[in-house]
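Service request form, structural biology core

Requester: graduate student, group of Dr. S.
Request type: structure prediction, single chain
Budget code: on file
Notes: please return the result as structure tokens.

Sequence provided:
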Amino acid sequence: MKILLSISFVLMLTGNALYAGTGKGEPFGNKRFYASWGYSRGWFSPSDLYFKGTLNDKNYELKVHKAKAHDRPDFNHILPQITIPQFNARFGYVFNKIKGFAIELNYDHAKYVVTDYQTADVTGYYGERQYDGNTVLAPDTFLHFEHTNGANYWMLNFVYCRTIIAKRNMSFCALFKAGEGILIPKTDVTLFGQRFDNKFHVAGNITAAEVGLRLNIRKTLYIEPAFKYAFCNYSKVLTVGDGTAHHKFRTAQIIFSVGARF
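Core staff response, request fulfilled:
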């Protein structure tokens, strides 16, 4: 968290140095609230997956080392249901219009999928069977793991907005955000051939920083491309039987949103 806050602070100072004197007007205009909706692509670092529990009267404890994962954008499903793809929603309150400070509720419906059929180093046991070496992650018979009904990042962010260019009906701003939140996934997992499509539950925490550009059009509308970098700690994911899993990873997102000020 200290690193991300430091990065955000440096970016804020850099924005002040680069654009001091060029921006005119209040970055959020005369509005107190804003809301946006958008879509994203995501990338994930490899992560160690830990599984522990009892299944079919057999105890198991496994570690999948450096499992690779990818996103699932599902943009082809925007119509007829706009909430199926990886979407991003924001709702903000501007508490200092002159300095450009706001607080924001930040939600990302990201999708995390461990890549099927990859070969990974697996250690541990399932009943009397031992694992100690390269193993193919076969989704039907061994392991499939995904947060696709949402990795679901819920965050509260501090927001700084700096006007770069302001004209009569249009302005261009730089945005810097940092915050923390909780992870509420709905995990679909298959382990040793048994599938469990999970329930929504609080499974961990997230810390993130975000930078973006906002093009304000007239008094209300805006367009906002952004880049987000986060650290996710899923400390207790429910799996098959009475089992749980945990893992940590870093993630990056490119987000494109359309919003309104009011």
